[in-house]
Amino acid sequence: MRPRNLLFIMSDEHSRRVLGCYGHDMIRTPNMDRLAARGVRFTDAYCNSPICVPSRASFATGRYVHQIRFWDNAIPYDGSVPSWGHRLIAAGHRSVSIGKLHYRSTEDNNGFSEEIMPLHVVDGVGDPLGMIRDDLPVRAAALKLAEQAGPGDSDYQGYDERITDAAENWLRQQASHPDDKPWVLFVSLVCPHFPLISRPEYYSLYPEDRVPWPALYAQHERPDHPYVAAIRECMVYDKAFDAARVRRAIAAYFGMVTFVDHNIGRMLTALEQTGLSATTRVVYTSDHGDNLGTRGLWGKSTMYEESAGVPMIMAGPEVPNGFVCREPVSLVDGFPAILDCVGVSPNPDDADLPGHSLFDIVRGTAPQRTMLSEYHAAGAATGAFLIRKGSFKYVYYVGMPPQLFDLDVDPQEARDLAPDPGYRGLLADCEAQLRRVVDPEAADRLARSDQAARIAAFGGREAILRRGSFAHSPVPGAAPVYT
Questions:
Q1: Angle between helices 30-37 and 243-274 (to 10 degrees)
Q2: CB contact at 8 A, 472 and 144
Q3: What ranges in 79-154 are assigned the alpha helix state H?
Q4: pTM
């Protein structure tokens, strides 16, 4: 495979279930669908932690969260662990970011030659409330989700428009003044992350009376697992919803997904018009998904497919056309894939990375490994760990019952097989497989210890509670609104 440029596009909170090429029969995503048709679509891609900061830190470093200890949205990536960007720059390649990073600060060496319009965590601190995991606090700001949902404009949509403008301009300038070596442009859009507000021209594509009702939304359908119950009582999103607001929220989310698709289309058009498409590969993914009302849950923070699953599409020179890869992959596979794409040899210090190049996975030359997602952040009463074993999805909760789903026969994860005595052997095999990757109890203790130290440094639990919380990180130049 020849070294090529790479345009890597990441959105925020895009569930792979809401994409035309993944089988959704209502959503309009023509640009992403065409990208998948001329490239590779990974059917079973996951984030490594279903919340922004640890997910993006894991993607940057190619390492699992328990290895790098950026556990939650108040312990952000600070450049201290080498990223794929650091490796590119050391090898003489340009590594440029446009848009959301959600790291600690631009003052850190984050592995980019240039950060254009970066969005980092608030005040370099982020969201300390998410570190409180004993006696979980009620996050009152979550109630705004339902109250705000509907048609309109938002800072996030304006920010994404500026990000796309900047990406188009960068590509045009690059075509006029090419580098000697392949480059990587990381474009990070913030939609369809809430607030669930969509511009009318996109919102109107999805009539409220026609959008699908969330699966398993009725009270008697919702799972009663203690981890899920704790999330629901902490992240009180659903308490502000009624039927009308549910439909407005879904229509708005769909509208924002189509808005993301429109912006991706603009970037792909810029590649074509500049002639860069002949020398540039493209990857699209998201940092995590969104429950979008399924099981009465909103936002992320769970190990269900809506939350932990992400789209993953790649296309371009030497990438197979219309190929569907069913091997589970995750965002840590991005690190080796990015270096592979531009022709940078692996650094000896990266020999223990858990991921493999997406290109090797597609070729079938990558060794077998265990895909891991884990969660230790806001609303997590205990550490949660997800692996795949064939069609089975196993979720281990420290001190709580595990969950087991057969995604081939039960894609909605409506039937937890873990309590069934007939699956005891498989449960034991799954736990053994997980423990070969991580000691979940040790990781949970380490996360809590790190978080306790940060809480103490912040002045303690009560100081954090007095500070309050905000519904979402503000765009550059705006202030957070605390509740």
A1: 50
A2: no
A3: 84-90, 144-148
A4: 0.98
